[in-house]
Design brief:
The chain is an alpha+beta fold. The chain has a single domain, classed as Nuclear Transport Factor 2, Chain: A (Roll), CATH 3.10.450.50. The chain is 33% helix and 19% strand. It contains six helices and four strands; from the N terminus they run αααααββββα. It has helices spanning 3-18, 41-54, 63-69, 75-86, 92-95, 171-175, and strands spanning 109-112, 125-134, 137-148, 151-158. The longest helix has 16 residues, at 3-18. The radius of gyration is 22 Å and the shape is globular.
């Protein structure tokens, strides 16, 4: 290739590259009108579990508690918890026990795994392992974080411990009753 052809090709390549669109690294799962908590998926999940441990609740949270949880929860999970709380015929699994961990008594310590261990950094949802403990019992659950608008929020909790949860395999399944 001669120098004259190269001199014409370089500006044309630069012009074409300016016309391409750049996709965002993190895609979202739709808009969000609720407030957000700052941080990545692991940071938001850890803040949520810290709040839960500081202010434990049994069964479906009341409206005041749900208002505190709102910045941490996906729109779908928040709406499902509101609907569950409004039902007069709540199943037993909704009235007592910790809905956010495998152990009915709930956790007194939680440690969320670092999201940097997740190889797909442009995911819309990230399952994160959570190490939990209470009174010498230790177990693992999984929290599903999704990107909603500009926020990372909790969308579901998967009960992974060796003992069965009375509601099934996940918080989402429990609320489907």
């Amino acid at each position: 290739m001669n120098n004259k052809a190269l001199a014409l090709l370089v500006p044309a390549a630069l012009l074409l590259s300016a016309c391409t669109t750049v996709e965002p690294v993190i895609k979202d799962n739709g808009p969000r009108t609720a407030p957000c908590v700052e941080g990545g998926p692991d940071s938001v999940a850890q803040q949520f579990y810290n709040l839960r441990i500081a202010h434990p609740t049994q069964g479906v949270p009341d409206s005041q508690t749900l208002a505190q949880y709102r910045p941490y929860l996906s729109d779908k999970l928040y709406q499902n918890l509101i609907k569950a709380g409004a039902r007069s015929d709540k199943p037993a699994a909704w009235r007592s026990g910790d809905l956010f961990t495998s152990l009915a008594q709930g956790a007194t310590q939680a440690s969320v795994y670092d999201a940097s261990r997740i190889p797909n950094h442009d995911a819309r949802n990230i399952p994160l392992r959570v190490d939990l403990s209470r009174d010498g019992k230790q177990w693992h659950d999984e929290v599903l974080m999704i990107h909603e608008g500009t926020c990372w929020v909790v969308d579901d909790v998967r009960y992974v411990a060796d003992w069965p949860h009375s509601g099934g395999g996940s918080l989402g399944q429990l609320l489907e009753e």
